[in-house]
Design a protein that fits this description.
Layout: E1 2-6, E2 17-21, E3 28-37, E4 40-52, E5 59-60, E6 68-69, H1 78-81, E7 84-87, H2 90-94, E8 104-111, E9 114-121
Antiparallel strand pairs: 1-2, 2-5, 3-4, 3-8, 4-6, 4-7, 8-9
Length: 122
């Protein structure tokens, strides 16, 4: 399994393209994303989506809707825009907001017993 994410480094509003190759034909894939804010490390955000690869073992998030997950539309940014706060409080986010440090997003793809992880920097 090869996870392709471009760009790995960019601005927060820069579009991310996500695709996966070398999957089993019609293989089930779980994609997940998680992050904390540099100024509020105790607050965690997460999202996920389950997909079925095509007959060639490929998946392109800009062309395919997830089977299920935190979003249900075709968009390579779906994992980003559908992130939900899973712990922490809103007050923790609004205190000490800073743009000085980079934001890191951990992305993972799992299929059968294989898992690939990538860290994005924004």
């Amino acid at each position: 399994m090869k996870l392709h994410i471009e760009p790995l480094e960019g601005l927060c509003d820069e579009r991310i393209d996500i695709s996966i190759s070398e999957l089993p034909p019609f293989g089930q894939v779980k994609l997940s994303a998680s992050m904390t804010l540099p100024w509020a490390k105790s607050v965690k955000f997460e999202s996920y989506a389950l997909y079925t690869a095509d007959s060639n073992g490929k998946l392109d998030l800009s062309e395919q809707k997830p089977d299920t997950g935190t979003y249900d539309f075709i968009d390579s940014m779906g994992l980003i825009v559908s992130m939900k706060m899973v712990n922490g409080k809103l007050k923790d986010i609004i205190q000490g907001i800073s743009i000085q440090d980079s934001l890191f997003i951990d992305m993972a793809a799992e299929c059968e017993k294989e898992k690939v992880c990538v860290k994005l920097e924004r």
